[in-house]
Input
Amino acid sequence: MSSDDLAELGGLTSAQVRKDLSVFGNFGVRGRGYNVDDLHGVLRKILGLDQTWLCVVVGAGRLGSALTSYPEFASQGFHIVGVFDSDPKQCGRQLGATIVRPIGELEEFARKESASVGIIATPASAARESADRLIRGGIRGILNFAPTSLDVPEGVSVRHVNLAIELEGLSFAITTADLPGELA
Amino acid sequence: MSSDDLAELGGLTSAQVRKDLSVFGNFGVRGRGYNVDDLHGVLRKILGLDQTWLCVVVGAGRLGSALTSYPEFASQGFHIVGVFDSDPKQCGRQLGATIVRPIGELEEFARKESASVGIIATPASAARESADRLIRGGIRGILNFAPTSLDVPEGVSVRHVNLAIELEGLSFAITTADLPGELA
Output
């Protein structure tokens, strides 16, 4: 497959495709393009998708429950091995392939299972304590759905997901679609 | 507030802040900066957040249920007025401030309520039919959580949310944190 083909699929220019891929090594052959299987394997390795990531979820409410049963996670190598909640009424119930455990057991569980990813699906008020527990449990990366910033030590990665921002992007697109000229 | 202050808050340069805001008009006063209340109001208007957006959700499973009770939506002006599902067992049950209705009622309901935003929280196999129904119901923007591309007519905006991609970004960050040199 040529960089032209890849550019068209990705909505980019072929020069950008070649430049971006060249950051990671020399994969293409001039005039012949990229071997699709090789490139696919290399990209999966770069993204860390050639391995299995063990994840724990904090918060067994509606969002935590939805995330625990989100089929695309497992298909990309993200396996949820534990779900934790501070509400005793939530604890003990089955959720996906696991049961909801008390929040106090998180650190020991995460260390014992060698979990490396934590997903925070708590209210904002509980997010920082959740992050602290995850970090004490040896977690290396946090996906934070709570609308709060988190302070984490070096070596721990955080990504924030704010679903309201997606709706704001949509309302911006709808609003500007009504405008003539430069903004639309 | 100066463009320097805004730049620091946003992790940008002050020149970029001034340039980006100038696309939308002349808000700042040279040497004095921006009036925070004025700027806040203008930005909310640009983003379409000065109005109420009526939303319908397709899919009353775990993800749809979580989205329907996501508190940040309402606080940003996005009000979920209807939830629809193809499963008769889901229909009739209370969800947030509404009840789950049969999918066949979507078009008429959306038109009658003047809903303008549709949220697709179905499996991939049902996403395209859901989008067609939303469009026939007069929806102007779609937030799609199903892992499928959608063909929509001009004048309809679509945003895709793939939660697995957020985890992939995290696994990339963790993987590269282990690497020495340029990648890390």
Notes: Chain A touches chain B through 49 residues (CB under 8 Å).
